[in-house]
Structures are given as C-alpha cells and as structure tokens.
Write a structure and sequence with these properties.
mainly alpha
Length: about 210
C-alpha cells in the first residue's frame, strides 16, 4: 500500500515548529505546580486541624456535654473536611495540568481555566464559612468551658489557611492571565496542528495513493 508522503512532510514540519512553549506558558506551568504544592500543604494542615478538633471536642464533652448539643463540633469538623476536600482536589488536578499546558493542546488550556474558576469559587466559599466563628462561647459559660470552646479550632489554622487560599487564588488568576496572552493564543491555535497525531493520522498516512 503506497505511503502518502505529503502528509508525513506536513507532520514533520509541524513537529519542528513545536519545540518549546512560549515563556508565558512555561511560567503558567510553574505556577500551576506551585499552586498544587500550596493546596497539598493546605490539605495537610486541615487534616491536622481535624485531629486537634477531635481531641479538643472530647475535652469539651467531659466539661460540658450540653455545649455540643447544637452540633458545634460536627459543624466545625464539616467545615474542616470541606477545606480538606477542596485543597486535595485542587492539588490533584493542578499538578498534572502544570504539565499538560506545556503541550499545544487547546483543550488543556480550556480545562485549566475551568478548573481554576471552579477551584477559586470553592476556596471563597470555604473562607466565607469560617469555622473560627462556630465555636465561640456566648459568655455565660464557666471559664474552663470557654477555654475549651475556643480551643476547638487550632489557633494557627485560620491564619495559615487564609494565607494558603490567597496564594492559591492569586496563582490561579495569574495563570488565567498568562494563558490569555496573544503569544499563547498563537501557540495553542497555530502550533496545535503540529502536535503528535493519533491513530486517525496514522490511518490516513497509509491510505492508498490517489490514482
């Protein structure tokens, strides 16, 4: 079966043009990996905060069982588990996208925008439901109960979590801006024709020559 050399020449030319991504794409790739690392750290500290809550909740239950009647400890735990889930999901999705955006693949660029937008909104929802406000005493409890209630949430968690969220959102916005630059548009739209083909291209390469 004759070999269609014209298609092969076009493929070679496309691959030659697809050597290195633009600087903006490389910067976006590094930022995505950095955001994934921050998200992983954020998930880890949320898990530590859950462990602290479990121990502190046992202390509160012994001192004043009625103070957990409205579900203070479960509400704080749910908030922390939400933070853990969002951060872990972002870490698992942003890390591979940091590699995929370096390829001349328009779908990878679009998916990065979508994941970033959804992730940023999920982070803002978590900040709005700040668990630090859930365990505050009303003032009528004994002093030891008030201390136990304030200790439900690890004292370091609100500030470190807020810093991580700000870093992630700023990084996501920076990635979105970098992937919207004109040089990046040319990379994804013009060079994508030189991406390595799949089985469909191979089938066309070996089609019978036109008579």
């Amino acid at each position: 079966m004759p070999f269609d050399e014209s298609l092969d020449d076009g493929l070679d030319d496309g691959l030659d043009r697809n050597e290195d991504p633009p600087r903006a794409v490389r910067s976006a790739s590094r930022l995505l990996v950095a955001c994934a690392a921050v998200a992983a750290i954020d998930a880890g500290q949320a898990i530590l905060a859950v462990r602290h809550l479990n121990a502190a909740g046992d202390v509160l239950s012994r001192l004043a069982p009625q103070n957990d009647g409205p579900g203070v400890v479960p509400n704080i735990r749910w908030s922390l588990l939400y933070d853990t889930t969002v951060a872990a999901a972002l870490a698992l999705m942003l890390a591979p996208l940091g590699y995929l955006v370096r390829r001349p693949s328009q779908p990878a660029r679009i998916v990065t925008w979508c994941v970033g937008a959804v992730g940023a909104m999920a982070l803002l929802v978590g900040i709005a439901g700040n668990p630090d406000d859930l365990g505050q005493p009303t003032g009528g409890e004994p002093a030891e109960v008030q201390r136990a209630m304030r200790n439900l949430l690890a004292g370091w968690y609100p500030s470190t979590h807020a810093l991580a969220v700000v870093a992630e959102i700023v990084g996501i916005i920076a990635v979105a801006v970098l992937l919207a630059r004109s040089s990046v548009v040319d990379f994804y739209h013009l060079r994508s024709q030189g991406a390595k083909p799949g089985l469909w291209w191979e089938a066309r390469r070996w089609r019978p020559a036109d008579r």
